[in-house]
Amino acid sequence: MAISTEYLERCIQTLEKSYTLIKTVEEGSIDYEMYRNSLVKSFEITLEQAGKLLRKRITPYFASKKAVDTLTFKDIFRHAHKHSLLSDYELERWFLYRDNRNNTAHDYERAFAEETILLIDNFLQDVKKLKSVIENG
């Protein structure tokens, strides 16, 4: 069964655009805050979409879809690692992304948003690789 990654691709494009634009404006300006907010939200949406699609990708490794549906976000990634879909280092980074997302979702301070910006280069590489894993198995 093919898994559509079309929406994930759109999320990646939106994140890349926000990341490109934030680099063109002065930090502290309204435009910077607007792009930062867009970047953080795009990061969150892309992360969630990646987790949902990876859940679908690992489903064949389980006896039932119901068993997969009970997994937490981190458990999904642990199982992907267990089945050699992710390396040790990739797994650690995905956990870091999730922890960051949890922090930004509960605390909207500028510092957390700035921490997210620092993760974007690696995140974009990892989510593109994960997209390929989801598409190609």
Summarize the structure.
The chain has 6 helices and no strands. The protein has helices at residues 6-22, 30-58, 65-69, 73-82, 88-106, 110-136.
Explain the layout of strands and helices.
Elements: H1 6-22, H2 30-58, H3 65-69, H4 73-82, H5 88-106, H6 110-136
Description of the structure:
The structure is a single chain. The chain has helices spanning 6-22, 30-58, 65-69, 73-82, 88-106, 110-136. By secondary structure, the chain is mainly alpha-helical. The protein has a single domain (6-136), classed as Four Helix Bundle (Hemerythrin (Met), subunit A) (Up-down Bundle), CATH 1.20.120. The radius of gyration is 16 Å and the shape is elongated.
Summary tags:
0% strand, Four Helix Bundle (Hemerythrin (Met), subunit A), 6 helices, 137 residues
Radius of gyration: 16 Å
Shape: elongated
At CATH level 2, the architecture is: Up-down Bundle
| % residues in beta strands | under 5%
